[in-house]
Amino acid sequence: MTSTTTAAAERLSATTLLRFATAGSVDDGKSTLVGRLLHDSKSVLADQLEAVEHASRSRGQEAPDLALLTDGLRAEREQGITIDVAYRYFATARRRFILADTPGHVQYTRNMVTGASTAELTVILVDARNGVVEQTRRHAAIAALLRVPHVVLAVNKMDLVGYEEPVFARIAEEFTAYAGELGVPEITAIPISALAGDNVVEASAHMDWYGGPTVLEHLETVPVSHDLTSCHARLPVQYVIRPQTAEHPDYRGYAGQIAAGTFRVGQEVTVLPSGRTSRISGIDLLGEPVDVAWTPQSVTLLLEDDIDVSRGDLIVPSGDAPATTQDVEATVCHVADQRLTVGQRVLLKHTTRTVKAIVKEIPSRLTLDDLSQHPAPERLVANDIGTVRVRTAEPLALDSYADSRRTGSFLLIDPADGTTLAAGMAGDSFATAKAAAAVDDDEGWDF
User: Which of 58, 263, 294, 402 has the most CB atoms lying inside 10 A of its own CB?
Assistant: First the structure.
């Protein structure tokens, strides 16, 4: 490796990583924004740009359609919409990025749940001509439910409204008030034109009344925290390793990826849901023994005692164990075409554990217009957000989603065909606006 390559690698490793997602209604310009971001930040390879230029010419367009950089499916290009979540990886001198471009059509709202579930920031686009619409409110609600700590409101197509400040101010005020009621802790509004490139990477010459950052400047400077070592330590057991060979006749290890926190040799731990306790006698990482391991490392824990541990169990510090329960109350985003009804039998998948369950009650469904709760709807349909009470056949050790996005979330699955019905977040649904205001940028959110 040359000295130049080594220096570049060192600079890259020194930068932080930001996971972010884009969302918005149909034709608000999400894919164009992402394409502009990649193009203007010099993150597009020459052959990729050439392919986009060729595809654009074949469609009778003189200028390259930058949306084609992310709309990779044939059906997406033919229809001019985003259907699947498109992941892109790029980097600047200041930060590395993993970007999820999510669909805007209401039919594919479920994909937005997927893309934003691991995001630290969500960019929600609004067409300056249309303002805040129902899908905008739905995406804001999902971002709040998924506890995404930073939301950017990108008011797009400002060129089509004459770059007028009052248009931007009105939309920003309406959205900020709505997202604030949901408890979103930080909202940044930026007026842009993705097609023309205004305020995406370079500052706009047409909006001298705006003195804030461009989209890329904000993405590069927004504070993010990846330190999960101080969080509640959790290891969902994925596999029990028993070689039973002449070299390792009594080896019994419990392998999995640490979801949060830190584990140390000699630490007293409890295995849930059984409640049995032991001490960590060893930790193997990549085939080598270590004294300490932390998230998100994949490790094998060895315990001093021979106790019954199997896939789906949760290993936690004895002094910091979540309560086990068979009655789960949670907020869910319904993502299937089929309904979720009271009395329905489902499978509940939590970390590496899957148990049988039944939907006992659906207390309410969220009305997006005014954030009111529609009581006792009896069923949830595609794209609904509601609260459910589920009774499981076996005890589960769930954290509150507010404490841990990893061990506080679960899926409801149709046992007949394996279809994912809903994504659930245990505990309180939305943070209150008052509570959100008290959250620091680097505290109170577990990723």
Answer: 263
Helices and strands per DSSP (H, E), number in the chain: 9, 25
- Whether the CB-CB separation of 192 and 155 falls below 8 Å is answered with yes
Q: Where are the alpha helices (DSSP H) in 23-64?
A: 30-40, 46-58
For residues 164 and 179, give the distance between their C-alpha atoms in angstroms, rounded to a whole number: 23
Q: Report the distance separating Cα 89 and Cα 102, nearest Å.
A: 15
Going by the DSSP 8-state scheme, the letter that residue 160 receives in this structure is G
Query: CA 274 to CA 316: how far, in whole Å?
Result: 12
Rounded distance, CA 423 to CA 234, Å? 21
Burial annotation 351-370 (CB, 10 A radius, 16+ → b, else e): bbbbbebebeebebbbebee
pLDDT at 444: 37
DSSP 8-state assignment for residue 348: E
Alpha-carbon separation of residue 226 from 230, 299, 315, 385, 446 (angstroms): 11, 19, 22, 28, 8
User: In 3D, which of 38, 47, 50, 48 has the Cα closest to residue 91?
Assistant: 38
Radius of gyration (Cα) for the chain, nearest Å? 24
Q: How confident is the model over 136-150, as pLDDT tens digits? A: 988 898 888 888 989
- pLDDT score for 100: 85
Q: DSSP readout, 79-147?
A: HTS--SPEEEEEE-SSEEEEEEE---SGGGHHHHHHHHTT-SEEEEEEETTT-S-HHHHHHHHHHHHTT
Report how far residue 101's alpha carbon sits from residue 309's, in angstroms, rounded to the nearest whole number: 40
Token readout for 219 is 């993405």
pLDDT of 184-210, one tens digit each? Answer: 889 999 999 998 889 999 999 999 999
DSSP code per residue over 162-176? TT-HHHHHHHHHHHH
Assess contact for 279 and 267: CB atoms under 8 A.
yes
Per the listing, tokens 């999902």 go with 142
The yes-or-no verdict on residue 8 having pLDDT over 80 is: no
- 53-59-65 Cα angle (round to 5): 45
Residue corresponding to tokens 């299937």: 336
Lowest mean pLDDT among 18-27, 76-85, 306-315, 328-337: 76-85
Q: Residue 327 is encoded by which pair of tokens?
A: 């009655």
Strand partners, 279: 268
Q: Residue 194, Cβ neighbours under 10 Å: how many?
A: 27
Q: What is the largest CA-CA distance in the chain?
A: 78
